[in-house]
Amino acid sequence: MEQVLILIDFIQEKCSIQKEDVKQILFLLMNKNCYIDFEFFSSNEFSIILRTYNTVKQEEVLLRILECSRNQLLTLHDQNKLNYFSEEKYSAQSLGKIVDNFYVLNDCFTSIKQICTESSEICRDQRVLIVQEILQVQNKEDYDPNQERLKTMLEFNKENIFKFSQIDENYEIISKLEVDDVEEFSNFKNLYQKLSKCERLKYLKLNLNYLQIEASDMMNLVQSLDNSKEIKNLILFLRSNKLQSDGIAILGLLISDLPDLEQLELYINQNQIQGEGLQEFASELANCSKLEKLTLDLSENQLESKAIAELFQMITKCQKLKELNFIANNGQYDPVSLFGITIFMSKLPLLTKITIDLSDSQLDQNCLLGFGEGISNCLSIQQLKLYLSGNYLSEKSILKLANDISKLKQLNNLTIYMRTNSLSLTGCKLLAKQLTKLSNLRFVFLFMEGGEIDQFACQKIGRILIKAKNMIDFYVSL
């Protein structure tokens, strides 16, 4: 059985590459036997992991990912090999191991290759050409027309994504809007005036980082969206502003006024938010009955663990939630609250994907014991990602966490970041043996650097992991 793993790190602040752009083109090209995953390291950094277990001749498909700027899609070229990016503007930090290659719909690939012959870029205006080619091959034998995620991507491409500068001329037809070019506060004031015209919005993404935004500005933004009741997907980047408790409470008013909201991403790290405001926000979040995906980045605020636990208690009322990404590093947590957080997650029956980032949060052995005990009750989890680097974790507590994770019988994808750990070689082996108890586990990524473990030891651990019944791929860094 052939395998492939390609890992590429993107830093959005440098190259303005968008996660959805990457998803679109990959889902359009890859067949149903391919696996695509995303790793989040912070609010503006992510990696793409691609795998396939088809047996395909290497010369059939050769893929290269080129620059993706604000008004461009990924560009695909018929190259003889995958190259490292030499120019800084591409911001590709690393390219992982290549065992084999990808399978692509040949007709679609030919079409894109022809477009690329004329230009090294695929503009958003040319996106419809790609979609048309995909639709033409929907009935071919090597294509799965019922693949739900692919259908979603096709629908996403049928409508243009507009930018800030295009609002005035297109406000009557805009249903998808991305604003990532508001660089000055004066432009932000213009933004909410223009947003009030957009009554057909269903997808809204606003990058408002580093703009000194306060509660009064958030109220203006909320009022500008009074006529946009159909929003299903809302993404707000509000990093390093001047938001306090009243600011996040106002955000609660915004989401409570969106009855069809299905996906919510809020990156409000590096503000001055405290527990009282978070509680008000959580009360409004509980009314989002259609919410399926929730991402919250609350890192580097002034929140106590009790407030976080109360937030999760309210999240349990979102009974349709399928994916939860929670980032709250550089905090302070106690064992009781961490246990409560995970117990509340276990009360979400449809929850299958969980990402928790508690890096650099002064977690000790007791905190991890409570966290692991609670996570073992989340029996519906299929994908689990834990970022616990920079804490005070003993070997005993790490092995107890592995034992708790081994109780998640539905788990098929596991990622653990636990750098600066105290694991011995014996401890690493015991950890790997615990994970082999998971009969459905297919992908494992362990980043546990900081101990005195050499490459030879990694190979030993790999030999243990590969014995797992359905294991397809794993990566160990110790």
Automatic annotation (TrEMBL):
<protein>
    <recommendedName>
        <fullName>Kinase domain protein</fullName>
    </recommendedName>
</protein>
<dbReference type="InterPro" id="IPR045203">
    <property type="entry name" value="RanGAP1/2"/>
</dbReference>
<dbReference type="GO" id="GO:0005096">
    <property type="term" value="F:GTPase activator activity"/>
</dbReference>
<dbReference type="InterPro" id="IPR032675">
    <property type="entry name" value="LRR_dom_sf"/>
</dbReference>
